[in-house]
């Protein structure tokens, strides 16, 4: 977990609750935080991390669906390969859950967090997050 030791922020209970809502309820939670905590940088930071987790998992599921569809065209070998890929998607879901728990722990500590692999994965589409009002 890559945490900045100097990123501890004095946060109130409302901000922490909003941030936890973002992690627990994923995309609807991000929308709630975007509306209710729009002037709180700490809330927007964690809402962005939650949105990154949601988009990462959605990307993997869509990719798995497309690849599975193509693999099912292969006679006799496509189904086992598709099931193996499903195992990888399940492992990624567990990874996302662990990262969500890391995010909730960082909220309770009052710190910002950089999610391993996920943050760098979405760094390339920074403009989408800026348009949604979720700055870095």
General description of the model:
The structure is a single chain. The longest helix has 32 residues. The N terminus is likely disordered. By secondary structure, the protein is mostly helical. Helix 1 crosses helix 2 and helix 1 crosses helix 3. Strands 1-2 form a two-stranded antiparallel sheet. 71% of the residues lie in helices and 8% in strands. The chain has one domain.
Portion of residues in beta strands equals: 5-15%
**Approximately how much helix is present in the residues?**
over 70%
The count of helical stretches stands at 5
Distance between the termini: 18 Å
Which class do the helix and strand fractions yield?
mainly alpha
Order of helices and strands: EHHHEHH
Question: How many beta strands in the DSSP annotation?
Answer: 2
| Tally of domains | 1
Mean pLDDT: 83
State the strand order across the main sheet: 1-2
- Main beta sheet: strand number and arrangement? 2 strands, antiparallel
